[in-house]
Amino acid sequence: MRSKVGQSFSFVVALLAAQPSLAAVNVDYRNFDSEDREFAATCSGSRASIKFNRGTTGSATLQGSAPCVIKQGSEEVILNGGEDVEIKNGVIQIVD
Asked: How many structural domains does the chain have?
């Protein structure tokens, strides 16, 4: 027969194991394009994607841990969270 401490410990371990990862990279954006844009990214070795709605400003989230790298041809955009980005003609850029 297991003790109450052992049962409580097992419950806590099971509860923590069932929790999803809470890591995320958030950016504020302005999409000047007339269509939605979605970019593939790699966040700490894991694949992720981020979508920017057409003709709007807002906030978007990459599910994963920073840094997140978006490849565009031979260029890379590195996001750590908190950046302001603009999308023009399908190209994402960090703005100051």
From this structure: 1
Domain, as residue range, for 82: 21-95
Report the C-alpha gap between 29 and 57 in whole angstroms: 5
Distance CA 84, CA 37 (A): 16
Cβ-contact 45, 55 below 8 angstroms: no
Q: Would you say residue 80 lies in a domain?
A: yes
Residue 73 inside a domain? The answer is yes
Q: What is the pLDDT of residues 56-82, one digit of tens each?
A: 999 999 999 999 999 998 999 999 999
Q: What is the pTM of this model?
A: 0.73
